[in-house]
Structure formats: structure tokens, C-alpha cells
Write a structure and sequence with these properties.
The chain is α+β, with helices and mostly antiparallel strands. Helix content is 30%, strand content 28%.
């Protein structure tokens, strides 16, 4: 049985569109925020190594992949991340690249800003910051390769 025309128009007059409009505005706000982050946000690009030694003077000598050596330069930020001890996470130890060798067989010299890792037996991860880029730029570079 069909609904009379007067009943359908009356129900349309009493219908509220506020919840739908609020939901659409919220979705648009989230979408604009995500697009802004995608083109303006920064992602850090690192190269890392677990093959390093600590000299007596506190300098680190780290071996990095040969492909990343052209991107490493003196003055770049680095950090040493040691494994957790007694269930507590350790803070990264800040460092700076001092010398980059001409060939890949020699290690990169890195100066630690702390004397905490006194033991050469303790192994962790050594990371060098190569640069920062947006997610869109990162995807664009990976497409072009």
C-alpha cells in the first residue's frame, strides 16, 4: 500500500539534517588535515648500522652501507640507541658526524656528546640523519626509481 503524498511531505518537513551535516563537516576537516600533513609534514630519513666500535677517546667508528656514504657529510646529526636495561628504555645518545672516508672499507668517525656508553662490549644501533622530507615527496621519489 502506498503512502499518501501528504504524509511523505510532512515527514520531509520534520526531518533534521544537522547530524548529517556535522558528520560531513567532521570528515572534511579530517581529510583536509591529512592532506596538509601529506604535503607539508616531515619524515626523517636515517641510515643505520649495528657495526661500530667505541674508541678510548669516546669517538665512534661505524661502518655504514656503501650506498649511503655519498649522503653522509661532516656535521650531520647522529644518535646511538643502546638496548634497554632492567626493563627501562634508554634515551638515544646524541652525536655528530666528524669525518667521512673516501672509500667504503673505512669507518665513519662520529663524536658522542656524552660519555655514557663506556663499554665497547655493549651493542646498540647507530643512526645518522640523512635528511627530512614530506610523505608526498618520499612516494614521488619511490615511484621514479
Amino acid at each position: 500500500m502506498a503512502i499518501p503524498f501528504s504524509r511523505s511531505t510532512r515527514s520531509m518537513n520534520h526531518d533534521r539534517f544537522q547530524p548529517g551535516i556535522i558528520a560531513i563537516l567532521f570528515i572534511c576537516l579530517v581529510l583536509v588535515s591529512w592532506i596538509t600533513w601529506f604535503f607539508v609534514g616531515e619524515l626523517s630519513i636515517y641510515t643505520s648500522s649495528m657495526n661500530y666500535t667505541i674508541r678510548e677517546d669516546g669517538m665512534l667508528l661505524g661502518k655504514f652501507p656503501a650506498a649511503s656514504l655519498p649522503q653522509i657529510a661532516p656535521g650531520q646529526q647522529a644518535e646511538l640507541i643502546l638496548p634497554a636495561q632492567n626493563g627501562k628504555n634508554t634515551k638515544p645518545i646524541q652525536a655528530e658526524v666528524m669525518n667521512v672516508p673516501a672509500n667504503a672499507s673505512e669507518p665513519v668517525e662520529i663524536f658522542l656528546f656524552s660519555s655514557e656508553p663506556g663499554s665497547t662490549a655493549q651493542k646498540g644501533q647507530l643512526k645518522i640523519l640523512l635528511g627530512k622530507t614530506s610523505p608526498a615527496n618520499l612516494i614521488w621519489r619511490s615511484i621514479q626509481q
